[in-house]
């Protein structure tokens, strides 16, 4: 149970300049940046090993104007990136955060490269909404590899990390200044830590059925493919504090969650000519609009499922991604030598099959998928420096939020999610929040 405890005095055996709740990409990037600035910090992570939403993602971070882009001959700019973010959200994304995050993510990626994270830009396809190749990935192409590399870099930089430490209480005084936190540790131990600045880098609310029913009713029956730690703690603390909340209708869905194997299939297959067919063999939407809104389209089909259908060229691309290889090994991939065979796989009349199949087959490859909720994009209202705002827009003295805990840059609907917005908010938000914390401590 999460609580806000108001007190004039908070005694704790440990005091740190900055406490960070959550050791996913946001918290780890913030910790690395703080240590680069010579500031001590402690990360409080509820799991035994840092993972969170980052570990379940593909690990692709959009950033503009990086050294890696320049080395690969890719021309990009912060202005172009910000335009793409705003365009995907149809102007709904918070302009102050669009600019701040588009500006910050490039320097963050460059600095992480100096900490041993060797990024490359995916240049063989464009994700929906991006006009330029700007998805940065480690060689492994998994979120698990990304969070492991960030974890190692944060420890090497001198950040302190407490795992199996679930923060349950925030202690604040009458002026809303955060005094410290209490975290539950194994065997019932409660750890109290005082801090000068608190950064909430913890979670969204996709793992809370009650909050999803309240705030995202269109996804109340959808598979939740995110991290169970996304229990809405930041939302609950924010409500108790009187903080502003924003963009609570924004989220990242995915229209390509493999069933029954339970794995993510890359949308690159769709962007390179694959199609989605329903149980009648019919194509039901434009797949190039985006994988997030595709979740709603897929769930609206008979049985709430669809078939990703593609040819040999797309299969070769899919096999570059570890998640797909694992799903294929588990039996997800079906192959037909002709239209009749594909119709038998889908269970429809061959005459009903979409004419777009002529793009790539035969042979035809098919994977059964559903729409899933991955993570939410709404949360605490923050300014461009990641300072948490009250309902009236005024600022809390020393409370920061970023990543899944705060509003993102996807606006207030599923279709506003530009590919990579989750990790953009995490990486850029962690970077911005760290520099804000440093400024507050020095001021």
TrEMBL record:
GO terms for molecular function: oxidoreductase activity. The chain crosses the membrane at residues 12-34. Pfam families: FAD_binding_2. GO terms for biological process: steroid metabolic process. Residues 18-412 form the FAD-dependent oxidoreductase 2 FAD-binding domain. Keywords: FAD, Flavoprotein, Membrane, Oxidoreductase, Transmembrane, Transmembrane helix. Its cofactor is FAD. PANTHER family: 3-OXOSTEROID 1-DEHYDROGENASE (PTHR43400:SF10), FUMARATE REDUCTASE (PTHR43400). This is FAD-dependent oxidoreductase. It comes from Ramlibacter ginsenosidimutans.
């Amino acid at each position: 149970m999460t609580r806000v405890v108001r007190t004039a005095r908070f005694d704790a055996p440990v005091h740190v300049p900055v406490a960070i709740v959550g050791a996913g990409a946001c918290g780890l990037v913030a910790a690395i940046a703080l240590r680069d600035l010579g500031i001590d910090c402690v990360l409080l992570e509820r799991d035994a090993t840092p993972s969170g939403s980052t570990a379940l993602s593909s690990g692709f971070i959009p950033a503009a104007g990086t050294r890696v882009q320049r080395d690969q001959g890719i021309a990009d700019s912060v202005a172009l990136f910000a335009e793409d973010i705003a365009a995907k959200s149809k102007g709904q994304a918070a302009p102050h955060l669009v600019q701040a995050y588009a500006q910050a993510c490039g320097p963050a990626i460059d600095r992480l490269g100096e900490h041993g994270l060797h990024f490359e830009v995916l240049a063989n396809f464009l994700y929906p909404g991006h006009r330029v190749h700007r998805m940065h990935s480690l060689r492994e192409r998994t979120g698990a590899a990304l969070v492991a590399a960030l974890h190692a870099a944060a420890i090497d930089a001198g950040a302190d990390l407490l795992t199996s430490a679930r923060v349950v209480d925030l202690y604040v005084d009458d002026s809303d200044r955060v005094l410290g936190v209490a975290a539950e540790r194994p065997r019932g131990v409660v750890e109290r830590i005082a801090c000068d600045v608190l950064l909430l880098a913890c979670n969204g609310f996709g793992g809370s059925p009650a909050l999803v029913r309240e705030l995202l009713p269109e996804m109340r029956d959808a598979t939740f493919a995110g991290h169970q730690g996304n229990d809405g703690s930041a939302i609950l603390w924010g409500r108790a504090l009187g903080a502003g909340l924003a963009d609570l209708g924004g989220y990242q869905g995915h229209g390509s969650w493999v069933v029954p194997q339970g794995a993510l299939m890359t949308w690159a297959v769709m962007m390179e000519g694959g199609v989605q067919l329903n149980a009648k063999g019919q194509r039901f939407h434009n797949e190039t609009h985006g994988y997030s809104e595709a979740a709603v389209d897929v769930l609206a089909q008979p049985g709430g499922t669809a078939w990703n259908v593609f040819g040999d060229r797309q299969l070769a691309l899919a096999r570059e991604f570890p998640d797909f290889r694992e799903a294929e090994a588990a039996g997800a991939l079906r192959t037909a030598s002709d239209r009749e065979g594909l119709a038998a796989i889908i269970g429809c009349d061959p005459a009903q099959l979409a004419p777009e199949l002529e793009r790539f087959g035969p042979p035809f490859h098919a994977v059964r998928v559903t729409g899933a909720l991955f993570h939410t994009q709404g949360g605490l209202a923050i300014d461009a420096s990641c300072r948490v705002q009250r309902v009236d827009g005024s600022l809390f003295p020393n409370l920061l939020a970023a990543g899944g805990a705060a509003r993102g840059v996807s606006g207030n609907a599923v279709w506003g999610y530009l590919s990579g917005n989750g990790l953009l908010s995490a990486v850029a938000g962690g970077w911005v929040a760290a520099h804000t914390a440093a400024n507050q401590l020095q001021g």
